[in-house]
Amino acid sequence: MSKNLLITGASRGIGRATALLAAAGGWTVGVNYRSDRAAADEVVAQIEAMGGKAVALPGDVANEEDVQRLFEAVDRFGPLHGLVVNAGIVAPPMPLLEMSGERLQRMFDVNVLGSYLTAREGARRMARSRGGEGGSMVLVSSVAASLGAPFEYVDYAGAKGAMDVLTRGLAKELGGEGVRVNAVRPGLIDTEIHASGGQPDRAERLGKATPLGRAGRAEEVAEAIVWLLDDKASYTTGALIDIAGGR
Predict the structure, then answer these.
(1) 156 is catalytic
(2) Is the pLDDT score of 197 beyond 90?
(3) How crowded is residue 72: how many other Cβ atoms within 10 Å of its Cβ?
(4) Mean pLDDT, to the nearest integer, of 193-217?
(5) What contacts 79, CB < 8 A, 6 or more positions away?
(6) Which of 45, 153, 33 shows the shortest CA–CA distance to 87?
(7) Which of these, 86, 113, 65, lies nearest to 10 by C-alpha position?
(8) Looking at CB atoms within 10 Å, which of 5, 58, 163, 228 has the fewest?
(9) pLDDT score for 202
(10) H-helix or E-strand containing 82?
(11) Is the pLDDT of residue 220 over 80?
(12) Catalytic residue among 33, 116, 153, 156
């Protein structure tokens, strides 16, 4: 029987790679996007072309009503068994003393509030005490939470630090509910997010300085996420897995 999975921010990068890999493994995938419907539809088309099932679902995770509507749409497909909390943003690099309040507000609205709202709705549906069937939740954090990202993204790093705390705390809350909660912490991964921060070559340029000597690929992160979603990781919860080339 196919299991149902929702991935936020699944129209590009790590979310997209995870959607394709999970679908290949038999998951029915909800492909969430905020504004790029064409990109989300392309992911759905690729999944359907390989015989899988997927649907594009709009919603801004920073908006509570959007998040609730997103999960209500997923409810129509049956019980939720997996959730990947992936949607996130960066902004142009600069030290904190130059950051505007507007930038900080949006950064934390999307990356922190959005993650908590998404995780909450997933918990409400998967928890056995709420009528759920249990499942697995994977949060996409960042190794920046440990490194601090000075002079570039201390706001982003702080937001990802909050996701690490959420992972550990929620894993303890939901362990008895049949829900495992883990996080992956990517490093310099070659995705479109760097261009959105004004540095399209950042991963390639800085990846050369990692112990492995290169940037990572979205597909490499997806492999870890899909493993954590699967029953093969049945005794893994509350874990933070760095996928950062040794950085």
Answers:
(1) yes
(2) no
(3) 10
(4) 73
(5) 4, 125, 126, 132, 133
(6) 33
(7) 86
(8) 58
(9) 72
(10) strand 82-85
(11) yes
(12) 156
